[in-house]
Amino acid sequence: MKKRGMRRQLTGVVISDKMDKTVVVLVERLVKHSLYHKYIRKQNRFTAHDEKNSCQIGDKVIIIESRPLSKTKKWRVNKTIEKAV
Fold it and tell me: N or C terminus: which one in the chain shows less Cβ crowding within 10 Å?
């Protein structure tokens, strides 16, 4: 039996939980501009599978890469770091 490789993990904030068993996670990262050497915030939105429908808007979560679950879902919610107030 083979071991799985290291899967990518990202940390982000849930911005939508209107779908069933799916959340939209906003992941923000800092990138240094090549010419001006100033840090720029870049954002990506990922749809992630939330099996128990436990995530709410504002929760900080860790998502992990997985096999394609639908046309847009290729991530799963691994765990919730911080619940929204």
Answer: N
AA identity, residue 66: S
Which residue type sits at 2?
Answer: K
In the chain, what are the helix, strand and coil shares in percent, each to the nearest 5? 0, 50, 50
Q: What is the residue whose two structure tokens read 């993990």?
A: 9
Residue with tokens 């799916």: 22
Assigned token pair, 69: 């679950």
| Average pLDDT across the chain, whole number | 95
pLDDT digits (tens, 9 = 90+) for 47-76: 999 999 999 999 999 999 999 999 999 999
Asked if 30 and 6 touch (Cβ cutoff 8 Å), the reply is no
Instruction: Give yes or no for a contact between 16 and 24, defined as CB atoms under 8 angstroms apart.
Output: yes
Alpha-carbon span 17 to 84, nearest angstrom? 13
pTM, rounded to two decimals: 0.88
